[in-house]
Amino acid sequence: DTGVSQDPRHKITKRGQNVTFRCDPISEHNRLYWYRQTLGQGPEFLTYFQNEAQLEKSRLLSDRFSAERPKGSFSTLEIQRTEQGDSAMYLCASSSGTIPYEQYFGPGTRLTVT
Amino acid sequence: AQSVAQPEDQVNVAEGNPLTVKCTYSVSGNPYLFWYVQYPNRGLQFLLKYITGDNLVKGSYGFEAEFNKSQTSFHLKKPSALVSDSALYFCAVRAIKAAGNKLTFGGGTRVLVKP
Q1: What is the pLDDT of residue B99?
Q2: Coil, strand or helix: which one is A51?
Q3: Which residue of A has its CA nearest to B99?
Q4: Size of interface A-B (CB pairs under 8 A)
Q5: Counting Cβ atoms within 10 Å, is residue B67 exposed (0-12), middle (13-18) or buried (19+)?
Q6: B101 touches chain A (CB under 8 A)
Q7: Residue ranges of B 15-44 with Cβ closer than 8 A to chain A
Q8: Residue range B29-73, pLDDT digits in tens
Q9: pLDDT tens digit string along A79-102?
Q10: Which of B31, B85, B110, B111 could lock onto B10 through a cystine, CB 3.0 to 4.6 A?
Q11: Rounded CA gap, A9 and A15, in Å?
């Protein structure tokens, strides 16, 4: 399978705990994106990497959230001190550097904060 | 700022009938436009895109979309719907000259195709 993969697929955690998600993009894609999707809504942009550089961050990405892409390959998204409002599906996407940069999405990580 | 509106939360259609899912957008300058489909507990699957040129774009699984610049619309269409087309559909936009690459999505339209 050469698509975008995400791990874990599901995560249940208690409020106040830290969680980390991983995304492996399509291998030849140099651009990687994180989105958050709550029930019944469209995905909302969180952050964007070009290679290892984090070029854009949404205001949705509070200081409890941090994302990295250390070698320009896989990426991690960490949420510290989780809150119930963090419960959502976290989607990762990747794209090539070719216009119009259509993004291909992974299956998502569903986070439930209890 | 860029935005997308999908005015219908749900569209019901009988199998074999034409399907239309509406999308209007707002963006500074010219847009790139996309349609994605989402099945339960799965990520978004790319259907088709508009870059420039022909206003009628053909995509996967028999879907097509018509770009109308004057009405700022990009409606998704399928001539003959299948039960398996039942899913959540999202329209997304990105301004061509946007500095970043983020997509802005609509709220989604649930399509229910009845046998």
Answers
A1: 66
A2: coil
A3: A56
A4: 68
A5: buried
A6: yes
A7: 32, 34, 36, 41-44
A8: 889 999 999 998 778 999 999 988 889 999 999 999 999 999 999
A9: 999 999 999 999 999 998 887 788
A10: B110
A11: 19
